[in-house]
Design goal:
The protein is α+β, with helices and mostly antiparallel strands. Helices cover 36% and strands 22% of the residues. It has 3 domains: 164 residues, Alpha-Beta Plaits, CATH 3.30.70; 61 residues, 5' to 3' exonuclease, C-terminal subdomain (DNA polymerase, domain 1); 98 residues, DNA polymerase, Y-family, little finger domain (Dna Ligase, domain 1, 2-Layer Sandwich). It has a 5-stranded mixed beta sheet with strand order 5-6-1-7-8. A 4-stranded antiparallel beta sheet has the order 9-12-10-11.
Length: 366
């Protein structure tokens, strides 16, 4: 259970914002080159390869049916004029820092969730009696004018609900969810939309007749705890709007691991496609480790087969892991050694046993 999750914590007295950049990677490249603004743009692992996996697509491309996880060959069949760009992690870090600098001017409690999204606790600036929309509009305008990209903002009574609703009106939308609006606006939505409710958990809940967020909100707490443990309790509290986890700016040393995972748009059996997806995850893990100033000494991979069974493999590393080349080398080795023959829809990479970089030689394997 997360050290930030506390079912007995006092509720916030002010609005929480969740700011989420729209198609962030593609938006960074478009901000650098205005000629791309009205063109279908994707960021892909290897634009020179017809099998390169798409990391993100701008909204012009999405309007043509192009989605994250597609390979470039399929995307170009939909749109021959597609502009494909190779990821540039230094560029994304720079734009992320520019956004975070603006966010930090609005609240002392700022919690980045990834390069392209963050929570801001606005309690010091406003209470629930104040209208948060003008401030959200101002923040949105400042990011657009000063950074050159758009953000969508969710505003609610706690961080989980704010994240929930930030996806409801994209791109560049602002969505406000008040406590009294939860039954009408939140409860009819699928339970799988809850932050932290993955496909396996959603499938188990569906077998119990829990299809919507409202179905979960009406479940007896003891029954949820019995079937799903502390994770189930956290989801149950999110469903009722009672998860009062604080907005915190975590210290790097608080992290136990850094991970990334992606779901493909189709069942993948081709090794080149699967390794492309693993490479995409390795790039994101490397970028996040650099951002945190940490290295790791254990690498893991996970994958989910079409029957929804999740598999994992781990390996220790003699050398410090943070470079994408080293992470991908070990991850691809683990994958090839797994001998998996079934088609997969999800792949992930993680680095754990995190430490601050050290120049001391390591003579043993953990």
């Amino acid at each position: 259970m997360s050290r930030h999750f506390d079912p007995f914590r006092q509720a916030s007295t002010g609005w929480i914002f969740h700011c989420d950049a729209d198609s962030f990677y593609a938006s960074c490249h478009i901000a650098e080159n205005a000629a791309l603004r009205d063109r279908p743009v994707v960021v892909a692992g290897d634009p020179k390869s017809r099998h390169g996996i798409i990391v993100t697509a701008n909204y012009v491309a999405r309007g043509l049916g192009i989605r994250t996880g597609m390979n470039l060959d399929a995307a170009r069949q939909l749109c021959p004029q597609l502009v494909a760009i190779r990821p540039d992690k230094a560029l994304y870090r720079r734009y992320s820092q520019s956004m975070q600098d603006i966010f930090s001017q609005y609240g002392a409690h700022l919690e980045p969730l990834s390069l392209d999204e963050a929570w801001i606790d606005m309690t010091e600036l406003m209470s629930f009696d104040d209208d948060p929309l003008p401030l959200a509009e101002e923040l949105q305008m400042r990011v657009r004018n000063m950074v050159g990209i758009s953000v969508s903002i969710g505003v609610s009574i706690n961080k989980m609900l704010a994240k929930q609703v930030s996806d409801w009106s994209k791109p560049e939308g602002i969505t406000l969810l008040r406590k009294q609006e939860i039954p009408d606006k939140l409860w009819p939505r699928p339970v799988s939309e809850l932050f932290g409710c993955g496909p396996v958990t959603a499938q188990k809940m569906a077998a119990l007749g829990i299809m919507t967020i409202g179905d979960l909100a009406k479940q007896n707490v003891a029954d949820v705890m019995h079937r799903f443990g502390w994770h189930g309790l956290a989801l149950r509290l999110r469903a009722t709007g009672d998860d009062n986890s604080p907005v915190v700016n975590p210290k790097p040393e608080d992290r136990r691991s850094v991970s990334a995972e992606h779901t493909a748009a189709y069942d993948m059996v081709n090794a080149e496609d699967i390794l492309g997806l693993i490479g995409q995850c390795a790039e994101e893990v490397s970028r996040h480790l650099d951002q945190l100033g940490l290295v790791g000494y254990r690498l893991g991979i996970k994958w989910r087969t079409r029957d929804f069974v999740t598999h994992t493999r781990q390996i220790a590393s003699y050398g410090a892991l943070h470079r994408v080349e080293d992470i991908f080398r070990l991850a691809s080795r683990l994958w090839l050694e797994s001998g998996e023959k079934q088609a997969i829809r999800l792949a992930g990479v993680s680095v754990s046993r995190l430490e601050h970089p050290s120049f001391q030689l390591r003579f043993w394997n953990y």
